[in-house]
Amino acid sequence: MLLMNLRENIILLDIKQLEMIFWSISKKGKEFFDFEVKEEKETLTLLINEVKKKSASMKTRSLAFAAEGLQNLKIEDDSVWNRLELVLLTKQEELNPHSTIKVLKAAYQSKKGSGKLYDMLIHKILKNEFLEELKYQDIITFFEIFPKVTHIF
User: Fold this and answer.
1) 128/84 Cα distance (integer angstroms)
2) Could you give the CA distance from residue 91 to residue 70 in angstroms, rounded to a whole number?
3) CA 93, CA 146: separation in Å to the nearest integer?
4) Dihedral through CA 141, CA 23, CA 113, CA 15, nearest 10?
């Protein structure tokens, strides 16, 4: 019933609502929904398409949540990832340290993203003023991923 209500009203969601619903479903959705059921899969597809459509209007924090959500749900649709990457490359100056790490981790774990995306993310993280702002957990995450992606760019 929740997904049917969401399906009927999906285009009415603002960006913040869309971000939180998508991320929440990506975190806990597998426990509550069966995405093999036709209606539930269709609703998830509509939700993903709405994220894709509104991605250009999203702030970088929302884009990081979207990337993490796509990774959590194991979305293989290259068009969604390509769109997200394009928007991220356009808004790279707005990325904060935590969001940058989130995107790097999501792209790596999903095996998505071009060399240009990884190059931008890694160079942004390695800037001195950026390194000073990273939380310890983000630094650990970066050094877990960095050796595995250096061959990409």
Assistant:
1) 26
2) 19
3) 21
4) -120
Domain of 132, in residue numbers:
2-149
- Look up residue 141 and give its two tokens: 């995450």
Question: What secondary structure letter does DSSP report for 10?
Answer: G
Alpha helices for 10-114 (secondary structure H): 15-32, 38-54, 60-72, 78-90, 97-110
Series of mean pLDDT values for 10-residue runs along the chain (153 residues): 76 88 81 74 88 93 92 89 95 92 92 91 82 82 80 58
Structure tokens at 72: 């959590």
Helices (H) and strands (E) in the chain, counts: 9, 0
Q: Whole-prediction pTM value?
A: 0.83
Instruction: Tell me the one-letter amino acid at 110.
Output: S
Residue whose token pair is 């609502």 = 17
Work out how many domains the chain is built from and give that number.
1
CB 120 within 8 A of CB 89: yes
